[in-house]
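Job type: complex structure
Entries:
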Amino acid sequence: MSESMQTLEEHTSSDYKYGFTSDIDTEVFPKGLNEDVIRQISAKKEEPEWLLEWRLKAYRHWLTMEEPHWPNVKYEPIDYQDIIYYASPKKKPKYDSLDEVDPELLRTFEKLGIPLEEQKVLAGVAVDAVIDSVSVTTTYKEMLAEKGIIFCSFSEAVKEHPELVKKYLGSVVPQTDNFFAALNSAVFSDGSFVYIPKGVRCPIELSTYFRINTANTGQFERTLIVAEEGSYVSYLEGCTAPMRDENQLHAAVVELIALDDAYIKYSTVQNWYPGDEEGRGGIYNFVTKRGLCAGKRSRISWTQVETGSAITWKYPSCILKGDDSIGEFYSVAVTNNRQEADTGTKMIHIGKNTRSTIVSKGISAGRSHNSYRGLVKVGKRAENAHNFSQCDSLLMGDKCGAHTFPYLEVENNTAKVEHEATTSKIGEDQLFYLQQRGLKEEDAINMIVNGYCKEVFQELPMEFAAEAQKLLAISLEGSVG
Amino acid sequence: MLSIKNLHASVEGNEILKGINLEVNPGEVHAIMGPNGSGKSTLANVLAGREEYEVTEGSVIYKGEDLLEMDVDERAHAGVFLAFQYPVEIPGVSMATFLKEAINANRRARGQQELSPVEMLKFIRSKTKLLGMDEQMLKRSLNEGFSGGEKKRNEMLQMALLEPSLAILDETDSGLDIDALKVVADSVNALRSPDRSFIVVTHYQRLLNYIVPDFVHVLFNGRIVKSGGKELALQLEEKGYDWIKEENAVAG
């Protein structure tokens, strides 16, 4: 039996697998947001003055902004004064070995299927595990350090590499960029920092696991990845979150910078709690992800498999500034029950001979709504820019919706822009054919859906692709028939 | 093997099958012929369990069990195979993956051990070779971009791999040139055995030159109006279906 099919059987009628909470002593700020809260966050993290000022600038600008309502999603208004903006496990994360880590925390990781020790030895994956807001443990650091690679929590980077953080923080997503990015910039708690020096090829996949673990705590992650000339890094981000009745706000910011001939591959499997069948609970996921292909022949590739969250608002983008730079976006977005997703990408062609590829696969089931929103912009000086977009929608059942909003702005007539879009229903013919050959209905659906997503899955690192297939099977459980 | 009694079936309220009676014994090859719209494909699909065909009356007993009570995949596990008139394309699903999953699904259901990847490849290769198929085909998406002949050949490959007890060929010969037709016929003839039965649905007599049936039945207007031996097919070839139509108009 294939792995994905086994999983499907294991999860027949199971509740959200990752819907548990763990009892870790947590230090929590009171609800609400004002300048004092921001000063406290900054003080707690022993930040330099410039960073506090940076946060305050973001906050003051945020106060002047309005929450965007143009996405094709509907949700209850968010009371920003009813959110806790900082929580950290009480024990300070200054461990030399895993033995010193709160055993309860380690058990949490085990439940999530992330046994750190094993991963260190077996998987060849360095894990910067984030529970709530503070980085608890990092691994493989020494081996990476030998190559001059920096992979640490954002807080640590502020302390150890302030010059790099100062140089690049906000250089791709300014703190005034948009409502949620501004909020993140004001209150971000922690995240990951990656720096790959000139000419270095990162020998392992870097990965981070995020987890919201304190009720009512918004999670405001900040990730910054800098790839110097001729370097390469593959970064994996996977998320699971515990079941909650209240909606939880998640507003992350990810910035990528690729210099001449650098290549950053950023893969995400997103499985935040999507809410129950009626849409109660679930994470609000408002994410700003953007990569700057600053250098010539640089390349940034986003691959995402989005199955979770009640509301998703996310457009991983590429600014193709360097001549001959390449931007890629491969996405599978699944919505079921009452989930709503408005996701896509922006490819901004500025440099000459820049190329971009967009492959978006939406799958809608239940009463969900799934929108693709994508912008392809070719600037005046972007000679010979080339974009290819393919946006497919697959409908399962007749109560869901799929929507496509492609935007095209071309200011240079040498540009070549191709767009293909299809919408299909999961075919009764296909199901019957596979079942006639002996496959169970669910296995047949699984096979059809995995085939549909193949172009995206093949962009994922191997172990992530397997996880993505499992998630898809779980997410679409019982959605046909 | 198969006993069909007074079978009535409708699609969207239109009755297509109006009382079919048919007995198929192990090892027999039955040809079902008839003009377009007579219900041939409906019969094939009803036996395979397609949902949009509603059985309104009658019974189908297969190997002593009520076939109509079984789900589509259960029928497959019990050895019912339908070679499709229009094989379906499934993008992104490789032939190799599909064949492996299908073979193992049937093995599991029959209480047999799954084949190891090595055994699987060996097994599949032995059959592709027999059918003269290029192995590269295993990497392609299921039926996607296949020519008409390739699709039918692929149906025969699946039949050979799944080793059914009752194989139903739904106009497998339609649109095939003589070479492809011979491949289909050779596949069927190679599989003929005392415990395996075939129902060959066809519009033309041509296929029956190569697959010699034990019985020929003429389906017209939802009923079997004439049954006989292989010579009946030749008679039809000679006189055409109008002969049947006229005869039934008089009788009716």
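Summary: The first strand of chain A starts at residue 26 and ends at 28. Chain A has one domain: 2-475.
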